[in-house]
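Quick question, first post here. What does this chain look like in 3D?
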Amino acid sequence: MYFAGIDIGSTMTKVAIINDGVVSSVIGPTGPEHRRLANKVMESALAQAGIPFGGVTYVIATGYGRVNVPFADRQVTEISCHARGVSSLFPSARTVIDIGGQDCKAIRVLPNGRVKEFVMNDKCAAGTGRFLEVVAEKLGLKLEELGEMSLRAPVAVKISSTCTVFAEQEIVSHLATGAGPESIVAGVNQAIAHRIGAMVDRMGLEKDVVITGGGAKNIGLVKALESRLGCPLRVPSEPLLTGCIGAALLGKDYVLQARQRGQTLPTKERKLESAVSLYQ
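> Answer (accepted):
Ran it through. Tokens below.
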């Protein structure tokens, strides 16, 4: 049996198809037309796996745009999906830090992959991928350059504001006084790590700790968080996929549990709308 999970985040859309393991996965940028993109990435994942959509037993949608996936059998919060996905990759994980484009989450995970507790920053861009995007734009850099650049900093400047707008003004001020971009980026990573660390402190840290989301690809931020939390962070080989993998695994769990009870879960008709014709 095949199961699919699709995670429509604020900046990236991800899909994974699994049976005994992950057989295909696709990552693409999230645009304004979620339904079209959902169909497009699913078509790509099915082609990669070499199976028809009718061969997929159950589909779960998660993330920011999960209600806009017309072919999903169920919608599940990304908190549950990240917990399940990380637990499958790192069975010893007890804390997950997910740094997304528009929010940041810290999740305490039970040994069975269920959520014990979580805290979330979704009211301010500080501590999220969007904050890093603003910094990269202001410094004229690519987002993927920020991590390695910060490791070359002779010293990190202090970014004291917890507001993206005011932090941007601080960056301009540091540039005016001659601070190098490496030192500014290092300061930004430390400021984000401090903010996330404070959020984790409120929830309570339990090891092992796994970091996911786009922020996990910033090695400077990972190092800053390790320093702030006082422990190593484990990083998945593709930190953007944990949510959709978890969604697919939850779909598998639901179906197998229902069959053990002698039940059949209701499913949507296995049909994808044409990505071309959706908005004609």
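Residues 275-280 have pLDDT under 50 and may be disordered.
Helices lie at 34-49, 78-89, 129-139, 146-151, 164-176, 181-203, 219-229, 242-260.
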